[in-house]
Amino acid sequence: MDFGVKKMYIGGRLCESVAGTQKEIISPATGECIAKLCVASKEDTELALQEAQKGFEYWSKLSLSERNEWIAKLRNAVIAHKDELHYAVMYEMGKTWESADEDIDMIVDALEYYPNEMLRMRSQVLPDLQGSHTNILVHEPRGVV
């Protein structure tokens, strides 16, 4: 099985590293090279952080429903490529089909659970033991970490 060269995803596009460095990915099950992975240089990392900040600025302005639409698209893409992801996990990690299935299902479940949690946890009124204040807990994006 050959998964080819796996590029980095920076600024909304797939790209190779500035230095052109790649690492062979060896399957523990077969000992064979199953893919090559682009390795980020310092310059790639700095660019990725700059692009992530731009992405945060865009993402934080989206409404909750728009964010959930994007996450639903990602979830649907994972489901559409489930077999490919199974093989990638099996060959890279040396896992069984069943174990890889659990990993993929956890991703799909998380991409459904957390958007629903964002809706549920939009804001909460916290109890004030003295009854003299209204305490509201608000969740909002904080930035690139």
TrEMBL record:
Keywords: Oxidoreductase. Gene3D superfamilies: Aldehyde Dehydrogenase, Chain A, domain 1. Residues 21-145 form the Aldehyde dehydrogenase domain. One of its GO terms (molecular function) is oxidoreductase activity, acting on the aldehyde or oxo group of donors, NAD or NADP as acceptor. InterPro entries: Ald_DH/histidinol_DH, Ald_DH_N, Aldehyde_DH_dom, Aldehyde_DH_Superfamily. Belongs to the aldehyde dehydrogenase family. This is Aldehyde dehydrogenase.
